[in-house]
């Protein structure tokens, strides 16, 4: 069963990204580490996952009281980032780091006070990451706006 937790859940969608960084796994993992360190969440991860998809990649990092997920979609030049923490999150720092590291043109963000927590079990975490990727892909798909 997924666990619902209370804290800051930041979701950032980025548009107009440079294509090369969107499929570079080392780049995505580096950005995840930079974000966690910049936000003061840089403790040792309990789990780090990557998933290469036909249209980009996904990264998930679970920490004792936080998690980060990053999904990239190369053909659409978009990405979606989710960070959950029980600490205050510095939105400006996150947005600027994403803008610079992925060459983003436009960013949209949403802050919530609760989140489903990334499981620390690898099999369940992978299922969570792939489900979240599917949801992000649908959410970022402009063709669905016509309906």
From TrEMBL:
One Pfam match: AdoMet_dc
Cofactor requirements of the protein: pyruvate
Q: Which Gene3D superfamilies match?
A: S-adenosylmethionine decarboxylase
The keyword Membrane is annotated on this UniProt entry: no
Database matches in InterPro entries: AdoMetDC_fam_prok, S-AdoMet_deCO2ase_core
- What name is this protein filed under? S-adenosylmethionine decarboxylase proenzyme
Name the keywords, alphabetized. Autocatalytic cleavage, Decarboxylase, Lyase, Polyamine biosynthesis, Pyruvate, Schiff base, Spermidine biosynthesis, Zymogen
| Gene Ontology BP annotations | spermidine biosynthetic process
GO molecular function: any one? adenosylmethionine decarboxylase activity
